């Protein structure tokens, strides 16, 4: 099967996935060459290579390194740090405590997507609860960022790579949740604008309009009015 026994790196991914985009941004930042393999996730059977590479979750992203699979986006980011120590920049800081903090906030950033998904899927009290959660998550991220240029300081790093793919989803979340990131988290909004100027980010992320179209497609797929 193509991609299974190839040497080098193959990324099994889906065009709009923020989790796959984490991997693409990290690979671009580090200048690591890889082959991109678009996977069918909606309206069709998942590929044999995806099912064999990630039999537990059957999801993208999966990074194949000389045919061996590495699954889960944050695990992939750490794998790139360890498997390619010569590739710079390093995304994780050197100090053990700072690395632990980066891992914590990178994992915490997933809550943006989880609460945001509930905003467009649910109604009534459930949507109100999701709104309260995402507002608090965004405020917490704003507080952690503080007055720094990026989450790790002056350099674009691990938490930035983990969080920035959710930025194009925020306008849709704002509309469904009736809130404004610029109002509740102005430092985070300014951070997003700084990140958008990076080539790795600009070339990887899609405009919010395309993300909103995809959300509408998901709503039709799931029969959500």
TrEMBL record:
Keywords: Cytoplasm, Transferase
TM helices/strands, residue ranges: none
Annotated InterPro entries: Glutathione-S-Trfase_C-like, Glutathione-S-Trfase_C_sf, Glutathione_S-Trfase, Glutathione_S-Trfase_N, GST_C_Tau, Omega/Tau-like, Thioredoxin-like_sf
First-listed, main subcellular location of the protein, grouped into a coarse class: cytoplasm
Molecular function terms from GO: glutathione transferase activity
Pfam family, one: GST_N_3
Subcellular location: Cytoplasm, Cytosol
Documented EC number(s): 2.5.1.18
GST C-terminal domain ranges (all copies): 95-214
Described function: Is involved in the conjugation of reduced glutathione to a wide number of exogenous and endogenous hydrophobic electrophiles.
Family note: Belongs to the GST superfamily.
Protein name, UniProt field: Glutathione S-transferase
Organism for this UniProt entry: Zea mays (Maize)
